[in-house]
Amino acid sequence: MSKFDVVVIGSGPAGYVAAIRATQLGLTVACLEKETNKMGKPNYGGTCLNVGCIPSKALLDSSHKYVEAIENFGLHGITAKELSIDIPQMIARKDSIVDQLTGGVGQLFKANGVTAIEGSGRVLAGKQVEVTKRDGSVEILDAGNIIIAAGSVPIAIPPTPIDDDVIVDSTGALEFLEVPKRVGVIGAGVIGLELGSVWGRLGAKVVVLEALEDFLPAIDQQIAKEAKKLFVKKQGLDIRLGARVTASEVKDGQVTVTYIDKDGEKQEVFDKLIVAVGRRPQSQNLLAGDCNVTMDERGFISVNDYCETEAPGIYAVGDIVRGPMLAHKGSEEGVMVAERIAGQKAAMNYDCIPNVIYTHPEIAAVGQTEEQLKADGIEYKVGVFPFAASGRALAANDTAGMVKMIAHAETDRILGCHIIGPSAADLVQQMVIAMEFGSSAEDIALTVFSHPALSEAVHEAALAVDGHAIHIANKRKRK
To answer: Is residue 76 flagged as an active site residue?
Structure first.
């Protein structure tokens, strides 16, 4: 029986980062991965690198460049005639990026001394891990500590069973080899909007069916309203809220979708249907009944603030535990757990986790929304600065959106920052750092920002919190 200080189940962003950090701290580590690629090799990197964050961003960037060339090159004096898009080449580029990064994880394992093991893991009593390999053979690993990082999978819904041809999940939506004429997307969340944007930019007519009445209810509603206006009026996405899908029928290479909204039952016909209603933890067959690790009714493993389960020496991180299903959240949990196993007093600030939707314009946020603060009865003040007043954004012909900063009314402590606009993901990271250090809006207002730069919009929003913005007219304060 092989013995390790740490056995990690899953090599996604939470698992592989935990494994590498643990070896850096002098621990012996094995990392299990059950998925394999087309070549039969382990698919290191989990959902994020293989069928999630990375491949979707590759397609988002390719499709954005295409629509930029079609619609906006002329404004710069650039003439591009007879533009076309080679979809197989676009997909091949995406695949090559995935291969490079997943192969890179394997090289990092070798460089750091992580023992990579191919097979699915199951947690047994006594901190042992049962590994079932592809050939059916079974091996038992003895672990000083176990880190469960099994990740998540797309949620399937009964009215639209996945057939990997006409009806696909988020993975299948990354593999189209031609642009469908009509694409249906079930779910107006992060995944649905990003994938809908890709195929909409490339020429598909995209209809998004969302069961909820509100658009992006979890984000600040001023930002959500601006996003919906841009997606619908400027980009042509047909977003239908309060539309609950009840049935589907595939016939002759098309799918007829039946849904119900406030006006009654309706139908739409699509060439492709993308089901993007969220993800669920991949926890089936993961735990032996006597291992003393518990999970809730939705399949999430129960942990405390330090990702410790109820069984001593067994931890769980990433998508399989509470909190947002974000790669960076899982990675930092992996680091925290590795360091705690090594005897350090590591902790994680869950109040400062950024969230991003990689549409164009990007949507990014950290901290509390205005709606949350109102519900909690917290007095606050707001500063907003539009990118339309940014010289750098004007020069780049990328002026949609705004920066919204929220600070405590008395202490001036930054409570949240919400951005829709160019490079929002990078801009909001400035505020993640600021909030981690307990900054006030005045701290940001007194900081020197480069000119001309998009980040000046963050500076001006901080100034606007107290009515001191320079490059827009400030709202008069009520006496």
So the answer is: no
Percent of the residues in the chain that have a pLDDT greater than 90, as a whole number: 96
**Domain with 267 in it:** 167-277
Is 418 annotated for ligand binding? no
Q: Is 57 annotated among the ligand-binding residues?
A: yes
The answer on whether 188 is annotated among ligand-binding residues is yes
Of 360, 418, 451, 459, the active-site residue reads 451
Nearest-10 Cα torsion for 217, 223, 227, 228:
50
State how many domains the chain has. Answer: 3
CATH number at residue 224: 3.50.50.60
pLDDT band at 39 (very low <50, low <70, confident <90, very high): confident
Q: Which residues of 30-56 are buried (b: 16+ CB within 10 A; e: fewer)?
A: bbbbbbeeeeeebbbbbbbbbbbbbbb
Cis peptide before 361 (omega within 30 of 0): yes
Q: Give the integer Cα–Cα distance in Å for 94 and 89.
A: 9
Q: What is the pTM of this model?
A: 0.96
Residue 425 shares a structural domain with residue 457: yes
Answer yes or no: are the C-beta atoms of 228 and 215 closer than 8 Å: yes
